[in-house]
Amino acid sequence: MQLTEFISQGIHRAIGHKDVLFERRMNGMNTESSPLPWDQLQRTTGDIPWPALHAFADAAATDPEVVHRLFEVFDRAYENAINQDTYADLYVPAIFALAAPRLDAAQRREIGSWLVGQMGRAARDDADLTLEVLESAAGTMGPVILPAVLDAIANEPDMYGAWFHLWGLTVLTAKSDDAELRSRVIRACVELLEKADRGEVQPGEAMNAAWTLGSLKSTEYADLLRRLSEKGGEDLSRADYEGALELLQGRLDRTTLPPEPWDEPVEEWLTSHWKMATQWFAERATAEQGEEQEDPDARRARLWASDFVGSPVAAGLPPELLADAFFIIRRLVYHSLSQLDTPPAEWDESALQELVLSILPRKLPARRELLVKIAPVTEAFLYWLGSQGLLDDADALAAMIHGLSDQIVAAGMDSENWSPAKTMVMEALEAGVDVTDAQVKRTLVERQFIEGVEGLPAAPAKEPPPKPKEEPPIPIVERAKVARNAPCPCGSGKKYKKCHGRPEAQQTSDR
């Protein structure tokens, strides 16, 4: 989406209206006629407010307005999660899961469809914790959500985003007596598996479809699963197709497999994800506190960047721009404050040109994928400054920045513009040196070249000690023979796909 598009679609109207409307509605819910503890959903300290969650679950089962207001609470929390601690995006799906046993089919269909829609959103934003909680909650709604799941799969462009989780939900079909629905799901599964058989998609992309066919005992497709298991070779998918085939033929009892996430108690899956979120927030706060204590300008820059990223203007940015918006604006404002002694509210053409054509290209690494984002993100930031009444010439300055897009990238890639620090880092990268290595970064710091590693991933301060050479009870190297829906051989009790079968776990065990 072009910046001019989301401006023309009412971003300016959203500013000053959306927040006020939301606050009015939230305040209205705290009257005597609606005594629900809405403030508990905004808590960022203490334990999970289980009494409040159960109170909301009771209300959601009888009051459609509460359901819709919970949709708004989730949306608000999700939008602000990037720059402030919040757990409401985890609490709301859990509330619906707690309410599920008391909901009628129409309610479960409405809430389930909403949950499925939010799964795609979370996947596109790499919000893994939220995605997994949404999946667990969606599953509690039962087979009535399957039409929405199939529609979402058909419209999902990223097979490695929501795709895996959406296909996992199709196993709910085994709980349905609706012949037409079962037939539709089987057709969808067979269509995907036949694509895998023809080599149009990778075998691993159709594994959950295979498990669903196995659960539905669709024995007429046994040969299809057998062919795919043979094509899998030593790939992880081979064990999945073999397991699905055994389930289909009755040689594997489904009760011996770990439960689906939605079949586990809400208290278990919410608590585990909540703990991961609290740990992440604590680590982020520690890192931010350390940087802000070191440099007042860095603290001011962070606040500017946080306010912008949490705004409706930033929400209109494409995900790939929003992902780096905080970093770009923080560096832009920091260098404006520290080197030009000019806050954003005092920017003019001269100051902005020096920042984007000289200072940032000299400081930031020569990564084209980052440099191309400087102009559009800066444009959005300028529009936001104007919408807040902080910069009179915001539109004209944004137009100027738009015209400098190619020059910004060229300046950042031109070695003649690099600082000594950046030159050293780029030479090290070309030589194959890992500049994120702890010792390398310490050397750069000692030689006052720390600025040259801005924008590069952080490395641990201390390398972990080597692990003793012990043979694990069940060698992880044998994981290729473990089906993703089978119990993990590590003994955790989880499914392999939720434990050592996760991509990050595979990468760790490959080192």
Description of the molecule:
The chain is mainly alpha-helical. The protein has 24 helices and no strands. The protein has three domains: 254 residues, Leucine-rich Repeat Variant; 148 residues, no CATH class; 33 residues, no CATH class. Helix content is 61%, strand content 0%. The protein is globular, with a radius of gyration of 26 Å.
Present the secondary structure layout.
Elements: H1 3-14, H2 18-28, H3 50-60, H4 64-80, H5 88-99, H6 105-124, H7 128-140, H8 146-155, H9 163-169, H10 179-198, H11 207-215, H12 222-231, H13 237-248, H14 266-294, H15 296-309, H16 312-315, H17 319-339, H18 349-363, H19 368-387, H20 394-403, H21 405-413, H22 420-430, H23 438-446, H24 503-510
Helix pairs in contact: 3-5, 4-5, 5-7, 5-14, 6-7, 7-14, 8-9, 10-11, 10-12, 11-13, 12-13, 14-15, 15-17, 17-18, 17-19, 18-21, 19-20, 19-21
Number of domains: 3
The total strand number stands at 0
- Structural category is mainly alpha
Shape: globular
Please state the second-level CATH architecture of the largest domain.
Alpha Horseshoe
Major sheet summary line: none
Overall residue-averaged pLDDT value: 77
- Low-confidence runs (pLDDT<50, min 5 residues)? 1-33, 444-481, 503-511
Whole-angstrom Rg: 26 Å
**Could you tell me the strand content as a percent range?**
under 5%
Q: What is the H/E order?
A: HHHHHHHHHHHHHHHHHHHHHHHH
The number of helical runs is 24
Question: What is the highest CATH level, the class of the largest domain?
Answer: Mainly Alpha
CATH topology of the largest domain: Leucine-rich Repeat Variant
Distance between the termini: 39 Å
Helix content: 55-70%
